[in-house]
Known about the structure:
The protein is α+β, with helices and mostly antiparallel strands. It has one domain. The model has no long low-confidence stretch (mean pLDDT about 90).
Amino acid sequence: xxxxxxxxxxxxxxxxxxxxxxxxxxxxxxxxxxxxxxxxxxxxxxxxxxxxxxxxxxxxxxxxxxxxxxxx
Length: 72
């Protein structure tokens, strides 16, 4: 259990750093126009907001701390 908490905490913290530095992106598809059976769709790349990354870092650090302080 202790090792699992530390590993999950490290993964969350590293993912949070990745997002926090602006490297996390996702594609968003929107319907621009629709006329009868015809539709026009646009796809744009959106970045994941940095506060989500900061939150993941905080949760990761807490899990690492709990895992480090936990006794077997």
